[in-house]
Amino acid sequence: MRTDILYSFRRCPYAIRARWALLICEIKVQIREVDLKNKPLEFLNISKTKTVPILVKTNKEIIEESLDIIIWALSESKNKQIKNFYIPSNKKEEILEIISENDNGFKYHLDRFKYSTRFKASEEDFHFKEAAKFIKKWNKKLTQGRWLIGDNPSIADWCIWPFVRQFKIACESKKKTSYFEDPIKEWLENFENHQHFKKLMHKYAKWEPSSKKDYFPFY
């Protein structure tokens, strides 16, 4: 069994998308669930960003960005055509652009809406409306096809759906309504109802140096 190690946190959308890539690429790794409120010293010593996910390869090389972990997983897959399928060369620039839009724009407003008490509670509605603009924009893309970019799923879908799910959960907890409609609702449900979803969201015990080894996926 391979000994690549993934430091993860179950609910983190960046970690979710990295784990999703590992599932689709059929790569099993040792997983260490990090307590973000009490980060292990070993994790802090190897991480420049102090955030998850982080992948430590068997050769001790460290991959700190979720997108880089996704690309690594595609390159490691036994299916040599998988990378070209999920990152088609003629769509690569468009795919990376929409991922950047999510990571730098949508995520900014999502955090300030979901965690408004940590920022400015008075601006919660403003950030909700700004985040909703991205949802509407992506919804418009999805009216043209089943996926965000082109006729097939790509890493754009992998990278964005965990954040859209987080927005949905935040809206439900804050009693926001009429923020989702088809086709983006159906697009998100495609992932939430996927056969891999339970494996993806399996709950691991918080990792400590004395912990037994856990693996992802766990079966």
| Number of DSSP-assigned strands | 5
Binned strand content: 5-15%
Number of helices: 9
Distance between the termini: 13 Å
Tally of structural domains = 2
Q: Output the structural class.
A: alpha+beta
CATH topology of the largest domain: Glutathione S-transferase Yfyf (Class Pi), Chain A, domain 2
The CATH C-level class name of the largest domain? Mainly Alpha
Uncertain ranges: none
The CATH architecture of the largest domain can be named as: Up-down Bundle
Strand count, sense and closure of the main sheet?
5 strands, mixed
User: Radius of gyration, rounded?
Assistant: 18 Å
Q: Tell me, what's the shape?
A: globular
**Average pLDDT level:** 95
Oligomerization: single chain
| Elements, N to C (H/E) | EHEHEEHHHHHHHE
Q: What fraction, in percent, of the residue positions are helical?
A: 40-55%
| Spatial strand sequence of the major β-sheet | 4-3-1-2-5
Brief characterization of the structure:
This protein has 219 residues and is of the alpha+beta class. The protein contains nine helices and five strands; from the N terminus they run βαβαββαααααααβ. It has helices at residues 13-24, 41-46, 66-76, 82-86, 92-114, 124-142, 155-173, 184-192, 197-200, and strands spanning 5-8, 29-33, 54-56, 62-63, 214-216.
